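Reply to thread "Modeling small-molecule complexes from scratch"

Following up on the discussion above, here's a worked example others can learn from. I took a protein sequence and the SMILES for zinc ion and predicted the complex. Inputs first:
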Amino acid sequence: MKAAILYEVNAPLKVERVTLDEPQANEVLVKIVATGVCHSDLHFMKGEMPTPVPVVPGHEGAGIVEKVGPGVTTLQPGDHVVMMVSFSCGKCRYCVEGKPTQCVENLPIMSMATLPGGATRLHKGEQQLNHLFGLASYAEYAVVHERSCVKVREDAPLDVVCLLGCGTSTGIGAAINTAAIKPGESIAIFGCGGVGLSAVMGAKLAGAGKIIAVDTLSRKLSMAKKLGADYVINAKKEDPIMKVMELTGTGADYALECIGNVNVMTQAFASIRFGGKFIVVGMAPLGTMLSIAPFEFLLGKTVTGTVQGDIKAQLDIPRYIDLYMNGKLPIDKLITKTYSLDEINEAFEALAKGEIIRSVIKF
Ligand SMILES: [Zn+2]
Ligand SMILES: [Zn+2]
């Protein structure tokens, strides 16, 4: 089968023929139908986050189960699945506490780029290839742990709902679960890429009174308006902190940073009211630091983060898909372009330049 391989950081991906082993215990073989092109992969490809190479990236995959390994009880051949960027073992304290995206297995999977438990199933000749996020969906097929998959309704278009495997559910969940917006409350969303725009949609679903979207590209801001933002701020033309203060009177109840830029995080934190909550959603390069005056905490402000929008994937992904299918969560609007696997480097160039909101690789 074909897969896109990262041999060294800051080099283009190479689409080559590779070998994929049969699924072992608790693993399934998925024929990938579509996979989103997400900024998180780019962080690894640029070396801003460490990953052992060679590695097959890709973590917003959706497809159809083709074969199941021994002991698989939750899936069978023919099932349509969306793969989850955050794995949950179901046994650790976080999983048991109902915080599956914080599962202890996630960090080793992300840093070692293996399947849960440390195995790899991909080879190029004699050479072993790693699986970024334990998924490696930039390939025609993937062998993944059954718990990395959420079974979804068969009438849902996989080339749209694949986005729910990472970025889109992160944004929606950050608004609904992490901020837990109550009807009428205000939220400022910094960064209107796929994650930020999903947060706009999530905030609208939650009944936010004032949704304020901030970006430097007018194209992205007009999309934010279409998806439910009540106000948009072009941070190139206006001071976003002053403008949020003006629009809310006191500062926003919540602010989300959906880019991974510490300067923008500082602005977002300064935009919340006394007692407001600032949520780091974007993935900042490892080694960068955020500095905050401790006095701000005496104003009752909260800073927190989120892993994949604190979703409970097995419950929330089917719900988000129902909302999409009923026209209440138009995640398809995020998809600006589709590419083939052979065009994957082009897709990443367009993403890095901000030319597209989200693109999808279709097989
Ligand atoms: Zn766990
Ligand atoms: Zn992602």
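What I'd highlight from this example: Residues 38, 40, 59-60, 85, 166-167 surround zinc ion (ligand 2) (CB under 6 Å). The chain has a mean pLDDT of 96. Questions welcome below.
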